[in-house]
Amino acid sequence: MKLLDLTPDQRAAVVAAAWAVVSAGGRMQPAPIEVECVEALQRHMLMQDPPIRGVGEGAGGPLPDDLAERLPGPVLRRQTVRQLAILATVDGAVLPEKVAVVEEAARRLGVDEFGLLVLGRVARGQYRRNGLGLMKRIVAHYWSPTGKARLQDWVSMLWTAMPWFPGLRSYLGLDAVLARYRALAALPDGTLGHEVHRYYARNGFPVPGEPKSIPEGWARHEVYHVISSYGITLQGELLLAAFIAGNTEELCLDLVLPALVQLHAGKTFVPGPTASGQLKPDEFFRAMARGAAMRVDLLDGWTLWDVADQDLGALRARYGLPALSAEETATLATAKALLA
């Protein structure tokens, strides 16, 4: 997603659609956290402040009849639907009535993507049906540097479970991978590569190529932590998911919806910790806006090795990453949502 320059009428249309989702088309009173989320979305992603309130003190209403006319163009339409999909999860229940409003908005706007299929299945409690399709997209667009799932990308998944498998280490070239990651420690302090190595060491994580390490493709996740400054606590991971959703295009909903479902709605979606109530609306949408403000999509042809020797602060500035304010830093540090 990106921070789009909308007209006042376009903002109003997006906001009306947002209130329609959290109110299930005007049939339900939005929960307080939903009201907070719609207002935080406006402040940080739509640059609408003060926020536009819903009908009847936040009760919302149906989708605008002229939604398609007021929101022209594929970029604006796709981004609107993605924002609506996120809002359908924030009550923690992922109700079919609210997801149906998102699906209707997508139909009117001509938007169709895998994340909507995922959302619909979650609303119906069909979590396992998302597994294979989601994994294919993650392997192709997250693990693989080419945007296509290669044989070696699939084989790399065996490494964590069966590192003893004959010939596997050699086939994956893990000796060279390990040497390259260990060499990051020799880069000057403050460079991205040095900070990535420090991140692994401080948190006790094995670098790619070491025993019990995760596939190298997943190392992008760790690099995102370092660049964004968000920590590895549950709230930090949820903020990172929002940051990545704002930053990347192809996997926006694929990454943020599972995080919200698993860390806020408390529904087990993928292997990993499950928790409830981790969402902090203002911090979440601020993180998304920080990712959206970046000039570089880190999942679109970007690699650590092209910039590992560059100063991290200068790199953040060149990429257009907004710095955390002193107030944000204090709030997130108190919540232990920042890296040390």
Structure description:
The protein is an all-alpha fold. The relative contact order is 0.12. The chain has helices at residues 8-22, 32-45, 55-58, 67-70, 74-87, 96-109, 114-123, 131-143, 151-161, 168-172, 174-183, 192-203, 219-228, 234-247, 252-263, 281-293, 312-319, 326-334. Helix 2 (32-45) packs parallel to helix 16 (281-293) and helix 12 (192-203) crosses helix 13 (219-228). The longest helix has 15 residues, at 8-22. Helices cover 56% and strands 0% of the residues.
Portion in beta strands: under 5%
Q: Find the structural class using helix and strand composition.
A: mainly alpha
Average pLDDT confidence is: 90
What string, H for helix and E for strand, traces the elements in order? Answer: HHHHHHHHHHHHHHHHHH
Rg on CA atoms, Å: 20 Å
Regions with little confidence, pLDDT below 50 for 5+ residues: none
Gross morphology: globular
Q: What is the number of independent domains?
A: 2
Fill in the keyword field for this structure:
2 domains; mainly alpha; globular; 340 residues
SSE blueprint:
Layout: H1 8-22, H2 32-45, H3 55-58, H4 67-70, H5 74-87, H6 96-109, H7 114-123, H8 131-143, H9 151-161, H10 168-172, H11 174-183, H12 192-203, H13 219-228, H14 234-247, H15 252-263, H16 281-293, H17 312-319, H18 326-334
Helix pairs in contact: 1-2, 1-5, 1-6, 2-16, 5-6, 6-7, 7-15, 12-13, 14-15, 14-16
